[in-house]
Amino acid sequence: MIDKWNQFVYYLCEDKKNNVDENKYHKGIEERLEFLNWNQFKKEILHKPNVSIGNGGHIQPDILVQKDGKKQFVIEVKCPSHIQKEKDRDQLVSYMRQLKLTTGIYIGEHIEIFYDQPESDIAVSVLKIPLELNNKRGAKFIELFSKERFNKDSIVEFCESRIKEMQHEESLNKIKDLLVNDSQEQIMTGMRMYLMEKYGDTFSEEDIVRMLKSLRFSVTPTDGQTANVTIVSPSNGSQKHSINPPEATHKHDTTLYSIDGGSFLNKRRFVYQLVKLYVEQHPFASFAELEQVFPPSLQGSYGVIRSIDVIREKGIEDNRYFTKDDELLQSVDGIIFAVSSQWGISNTTKFMNLAKSLGYNITTSNEKEKHTKETLREGQIECV
Predict the structure, then answer these.
(1) What is the pLDDT of residue 371?
(2) Which of 199, 214, 338, 341 has its CA 20 to 30 A from that of 303?
C-alpha cells in the first residue's frame, strides 16, 4: 500500500511545490481518484455536481464519489497553498449531512478524513495525512478508499476505532498535562508510594517524605518522546540527582512492640503475631470480615493481609509477605492468606492504635525504657 500511496500522492506533492491554483489541483485530485480505480466515465466521480436537496434546494460539492449509482463520500477541495479554516470544515460537514453521508474528505494542504458520528452534534476529524511520500497513514487512506476495497461498514469501523484511540490518547495527555502543571505534587506522591514499598521496613514514611521535600521535581514535555523527569535540588538549580538507596548511615528505628505483656517483637513480627492471635481468637471470621478488621489502607499499597493465590498470581511474595508454610493463615471460609511484612514507623503506629482499639495491651520498648529510667530515678530497683 505504501507504493500505491506514493504513486497517488506524488503528483499532489508536485502541485503543492508548484503552487498550482485550485482548478488545476481539483483536476489532479480527480485523476488521482481514477488511479484508485474510480471511473469518471461511469459517473463514479462527479465534478461539482448540482445535487437537489429538499424542496427545490441545490448544493454543489466539489467532488462526489458514487458506486453503483449510490453516493459514497464527498470531497472538499482547496488549493495546496491554502490553510484550512473553520468554514472549510463546516462546509464539508454540511455537504455530508445534506447528502446523508457519514464520511467526507478534505484535500488541500493536507488530506483529512471526517466522520459524522451517529447521535453526535459534531463531525470528528479521524485521520490527518500530510502530502508526503512513505506515510503510513497514507497507506491506510489507500486501503480505505480504493474502489476495490471500499466498504462503508469498514469505513465506519475504522472511524469508530480511531475515535477510541483518540479518546485514549486524550486521557493520556490529560495525565501528561497534570504532570507538567503540578509535577512537584504528582511526582512526590508517586515516589513516596514507591519508596515506601521498597524501603518501608527500613525508613519511616516521615523520613521518606522529609527527604522528598528536599528535592524539586519538574517535567518537560518533548516532541515525540516520553515526558522527561528531572530531579533538581532546591539548593543548586543546575545540579541533577538520581534517587539512590538510602545510606546505611541513616539512623534506623529500632522500636519493639509487646502484645499483652509478651515478648518484645520488631515491627514486622509484631503485626504478624497480632493478626495470627486475632485469627486464633476469632475462628469463625471469614476472610472478608478479617479484611474489614484489618483494612488494606492501614498498611498502604500491599494491604495488611492478602490471599496467597493473589500474591502468587502477581508474583510479589518475595520479601513482601510472610509466606512460609508455617506462617500462612486460614479463614473459616477456606481462604489461605499471608500477612504483609512491609512496615515502617507510620503504618506500624496506625496498626498499633488499631490493636489497642481491639482491646489488646500494646507496649513499646520506648515506653518500657522511659518507665525504667523514671523508676531508677526514684531509687527503685528494676526487677527483671
Answers:
(1) 52
(2) 214
Alpha-carbon separation of residue 169 from 22, 172, 221 (angstroms): 35, 5, 15
Residue 242: φ, ψ to 5°: -115, 150
Alpha helices in the chain (DSSP H): 2-17, 22-35, 86-98, 136-145, 152-181, 183-199, 205-213, 267-281, 287-293, 308-314, 345-357, 365-377
> CA–CA separation, 59 vs 50, rounded Å?
6
Residue 380 Cα distances to 371, 373, 383, angstroms: 11, 10, 9
Give residue for cell 497553498: 81
Element housing 338 (H / E): strand 336-339
CA dist list (Å): 230 to 39, 190, 242: 58, 14, 9
Mention every residue, 6+ apart, whose C-beta is less than 8 A from residue 286: 331, 332, 333, 335
pLDDT for the residue numbered 71: 94
Identify the CA nearest to 130 among candidates 143, 155, 154, 112.
112
Cα torsion 138, 142, 145, 151: sign: negative
163 to 142, 143, 157, 173: CA distances (angstroms): 20, 18, 10, 15
Of 382, 370, 292, 366, nearest in space to 331 by CA: 292
Identify any residues that bridge with 17 across adjacent strands, giving them in sequence order. Answer: none
Cβ count near 134 (within 10 Å):
11
| Cell (9 digits) for 6 | 506514493
HSE at residue 364, side-chain half, CA atoms within 13 A, is 16
CB 220 within 8 A of CB 230: yes
Cα 337 to Cα 304: distance, rounded to the nearest angstrom = 10
| Tally of CB atoms within 10 A around 131 | 20
Per-block mean pLDDT, blocks of 10 residues, the chain (384 long) = 93 93 95 94 93 84 94 95 90 92 94 87 89 93 93 92 90 78 78 84 85 82 50 41 40 81 92 96 94 89 86 71 91 93 88 94 78 49 41
Whole-prediction pTM: 0.52
